[in-house]
Amino acid sequence: xxxxxxxxxxxxxxxxxxxxxxxxxxxxxxxxxxxxxxxxxxxxxxxxxxxxxxxxxxxxxxxxxxxxxxxxxxxxxxxxxxxxxxxxxxxxxxxxxxxxxxxxxxxxxxxxxxxxxxxxxxxxxxxxxxxxxxxxxxxxxxxxxxxxxxxxxxxxxxxxxxxxxxxxxxxxxxxxxxxxxxxxxxxxxxxxxxxxxxxxxxxxxxxxxxxxxxxxxxxxxxxxxxxxxxxxxxxxxxxxxxxxxxxxxxxxxxxxxxxxxxxxxx
Length: 266
What we know:
With 266 residues, the chain is mainly α. The protein folds into 2 domains: 2-67, no CATH class; 82-260, Nucleotidyltransferase, domain 5. It is 53% helix and 8% strand. The protein is built from 9 helices and 5 strands. It has helices at residues 2-11, 21-45, 53-64, 82-91, 131-157, 174-184, 197-209, 218-221, 232-260, and strands spanning 101-103, 121-123, 163-166, 187-191, 224-228. Strand 3, helix 6 and strand 4 form a beta-alpha-beta unit. The protein is elongated, with a radius of gyration of 26 Å.
């Protein structure tokens, strides 16, 4: 079995992750040195008369299972382009994630439904749910929570929005920009250099406060990478799902209160 493990690691698994330092040393000892020493030990000291070919077959089944791995682009453990891989897989799944719903309240729900003990998770999973469905559900869930918030924000600001500007790390994704547009039902302006949105915004506000620019000029100074328009069919899907999303949040609040209160057993 150990020589077979060595072959599998060399031909398949070693390409999946780049190891350095102690991790590389441990991998070399475990997957290369040990199998070679085992073969030498077997040749020199293990009695052979009681061994049969069926023994080799049975002991080979476990390492042979390494030949079976996911082909959806997510089968590699922590690749450097993990975020891009997840987005690529999610983009192949239609709006609504084939019925899977993601609850994005990993640290409690803060706006517009203030329930600090609510937690996140996936619901409506079935036996044939795929990882791509779950990846798409994450994007859908975050976007639907934003769509839930938008009318409350509009009421607070006393303004109706026919376009939303999208910045931050998620704005590097065209799919996320499109999903927001589909959930909002309005155009979404995805900013260029989105990872510096906060710093860029702070600089523009500082210029406005010191009188170098007018606050009304700020939108024109933002560089747009892409303008996403809502898709009618996708918007209809999210408009149908959003009430269930909100209803799930509200109905499960007592459950999470009981589960996550300070008095709950740990």
